[in-house]
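[audit] Reproducing an earlier prediction to check determinism. Same input, same settings, fresh worker. If the tokens differ from the archived copy the diff job will pick it up downstream; this log only records the rerun itself.
[audit] input (262 residues):
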Amino acid sequence: MDKALLGDALARLDLPLRTLQPGHVWLVGAGPGDPGLLTLDALSALAQADALVHDALVSPEIVAVAAQAEKFYVGKRGGRLSIPQEEINALLVRLGRAGRKVVRLKGGHPYVFGRGGEEARALAQAGIACRVLAGITSAFGGLTSAGIPATMRGVNGAIILATGFAAVSDDRPDWAALARTGQPMVIYMGLTHMETTVADLIAGGLAPDMPAALIENATLPQERTVTATLATLVEAAERENIVSPALIVVGRIVALRAEGAP
């Protein structure tokens, strides 16, 4: 596509974009990875920032948009040494108090398993002005990219987003209760404890032959989707060497992929 056409379209849209003020921090959702899924608000924020605090799951192409900004990498990846959340909160407060124009860039949506709520609260407690910009959450971006409809008339009337990271802790989801709903679910950060999660879902009443899928690197050029059943999901992940970041999808919507996958 001719980029001039895109520029003309943006000019006609006459966007009421807000100005990122010195001393303010914006928590910005970068979407699931594909730069084409950035919102225009996010693009505007990146163009204005002079300090960019970004995650591991934000693609280099998106980080590069903020060419003028000083970069602070605070990525968290499962199974690897990570910067404690308290240190990230303190960094955001410090940059805000220094009068910087701060963008905290997070993969997906800041308020969907992104700890954006914790950061917004820390900034509010410190008296730092904060704005949150929504992004396309990985679940819906990934499902769409993989050709799996999030909802389908006659198939499901709801969809569950859950985290598998806390699968063996006191605040883990009640998998049995979720299983009893019969509604499809998308599980974030679920590879490490997938065997336990699968066992709990089956014990909670989900059929072992329930369609399931793994979506690795959703929306990126290296995206892979592996389909299986709930009972064979762990085996499929091991056989195909699925690695993070990956989404786990469980439910009858997975079977619809064969009917409309790109």
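[audit] rerun output stored. Observation attached for the diff report: The first strand starts at residue 25 and ends at 29.
[audit] end
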